[in-house]
Write a structure and sequence with these properties.
This protein is of the alpha/beta class. It contains six helices and seven strands; from the N terminus they run αβαβαβααβαβββ. It has a single domain, classed as Vaccinia Virus protein VP39 (Rossmann fold). Helices cover 33% and strands 22% of the residues. Helix 1 crosses helix 2.
């Protein structure tokens, strides 16, 4: 079940077709909800949890319109990787991601997450741990019980501004 604040995040992200979730851990609810809405999601974490792996295998069936793939990867390494290196880890080509997002993104991962989104020419949205302020330049969006930070609005190819500030 998706909590109301996370459901608001799903609604915000549902406009994007192909998404990359950073630091999914064992909380696949947002990624799974997006896959159920027909979106293709790659969820990365340095060590994926059992619930995330189970959600990824469950979304492979005919009852789910989109897809969810769980990948063990480090956002710090992905942010510094070449396109070829990240393509081999993430699958497909780097330019195929419309958005990079994270739930409860700690301060130390905000810069590399935004750098990865910039390299992928994708939007970048995240929530923080709640007690931390963003360490990167953002626009704040208040949504049903949560604040979403927008570091990048999107790419030039999608017709939106590449800079979320």
């Amino acid at each position: 079940m998706v909590s109301p604040p996370r459901l608001a995040l799903v609604e915000e992200l549902a406009d994007h077709e192909r998404l990359l979730e950073v630091g999914v851990g064992d909380r696949p609810e947002v990624a799974r909800s997006l896959a159920e809405r027909g979106r293709d999601v790659v969820a990365v974490d340095i060590a994926g949890g059992e619930r995330t792996l189970a959600a990824a295998s469950e979304t492979g069936g005919p009852t789910v319109a989109g897809s969810l793939r769980a990948v063990e990867a480090d956002v710090l390494a992905l942010a510094e990787a070449t396109d070829g290196e990240s393509e081999s880890v993430l699958g497909g080509t780097s330019g195929e991601f419309d958005a990079v997002y994270a739930c409860n993104l700690p301060a130390e991962l905000q810069r590399p997450t935004v750098a990865l989104a910039e390299r992928l020419d994708a939007a970048c949205l995240f929530t923080t741990l709640g007690f931390e302020e963003p360490t990167v330049s953002v626009r704040r969006r208040s949504l049903s019980g949560t604040t979403v930070y927008v570091a990048r609005s999107g790419s030039a190819r999608s017709g939106s501004s590449a800079d979320g500030r």
